[in-house]
Amino acid sequence: VCRKRNETKENHHSFIMQGTENIYLVHRAMFYLASRRRQLIASAVLDKSALEAYQEAKKANPQETFFLSTQGKEDLDATMLNDGQFDAVITSKSGSVFPCPTVFYATLNLFPADFVNNSKTIKTGVTVSSFKALKDRPLNSKYRDPAYPSGYMPFYIYGSGGEFHIDHMLLRAPNCQLSASNVNMFLNDNVTEDHFRDGCLLFAHNVEEEAMQPFLPTSELVGGSGPTSKNNFFFKSGKKFQVSLFKDRYSYKAGGPGLANVDYSDRLATGEMVLGTEGDVWVDSETVNRDPFARRPPVNDWIDEFNKIGEELK
Predict the structure, then answer these.
(1) What is the rounded distance in angstroms from the CA atom of residue 288 to the CA atom of residue 32?
(2) Cα separation of 95 and 183, whole Å?
(3) Which of 46, 164, 193, 277 is the most exposed place for a label (fewest CB within 10 A)?
């Protein structure tokens, strides 16, 4: 099991799509699978027909989140990042915790089947080119921080052409992937587009990450009607944050710990950030923490059966 968990081999890869004109891809990381044990944010170019299909679908369905997944198994380093090109599929999902593609999840046996088959295919046979990493940070245990951030929550912020996107810095395990596309920035200082193009750090103040960790399962964070439901969760459409921006002092491939350590004299700007539409905001506290090779106790199968019986008797 340990050998399989730590094999860096070809695999199916899935990305959250961000941007409208200039495309950015946020890799759906996993702490317990070597081929996906990294926080990767990349820029990419889609072929013309795929870009148009994506833009039309996004305009028509602002509540949906869009994903780009490899057509087959790929090696992130040897082929995707080295060659900068691969074939892919674009899908979308509205209100789902786990979007497709089916082959991706079925291969790893990660999730229940009812989460797999409800996605919408937007475009197949997509040619991705100019695939280039902005941030490619390893998530191995030796690179993780000894404690969660206290008094703030750190993100990477990046973008171009007036479009800005964020992805929560994964500094410790367990964690939660919090990503947002097309965030609105109201800054008190001028920041050049070069800073955003290479990616800098954004601290959301008065967000107690240390107190929030570990996060509840995604379905409890973005579903239901309780205190942690979608209507009450801190990371949702329209939410406002007081923020500070800092230059990322480390190389794009640097490993931690300490990646969020900054000198406040090097602060680039302060201001307010507002999250965009529902489809532009993504929350997932399960994929990143799931161990596909964890042994499932036999009693869990019986619990599942009893739960099914209970649902049928309602």
Answers:
(1) 8
(2) 19
(3) 193
List of residues 6+ apart from 68 with CB closer than 8 A: 14, 15, 17, 25, 44, 88, 89, 90, 126, 128
Rounded Cα distance between 57 and 122, Å, is: 7
Q: What gap in Å lies between CA 292 and CA 4, rounded to an integer?
A: 10
Strands annotated E in 142-274:
152-160, 163-168, 177-180, 184-187, 200-205, 240-246, 267-274
Give 30-68 as a 3 state SS string: CCCCHHHCEEEEEEEEECHHHHHHHHHHHHHCCCCEEEE
Place of tokens 């799509």: 17
For residue 300, the surrounding DSSP H or E stretch is helix 298-313
pTM: 0.85
CB-neighbour burial class of residue 211 (10 A; exposed 0-12, middle 13-18, buried 19+): exposed
For residue 87, give the 3-state DSSP assignment: strand
Helix (H, G, I), strand (E, B) or coil at 296: coil
| Average pLDDT for runs of 10 along the chain of length 314 | 55 94 96 93 98 97 93 90 94 56 44 49 96 97 97 97 96 97 94 89 95 90 57 89 96 97 92 95 93 65 67 64
Long-range Cβ contact pairs of 194-197 (< 8 A, separation 24 or more)? 195/245, 195/247, 195/268, 196/157, 196/158, 196/159, 196/160, 196/164, 197/158, 197/159, 197/160
Classified as helix, coil or strand, 166 is strand
- Copy the structure tokens of residue 131: 């695939």
Judge residue 61's burial from the number of C-beta atoms within 10 Å of its C-beta, 0-12 exposed, 13-18 middle, 19 or more buried: middle
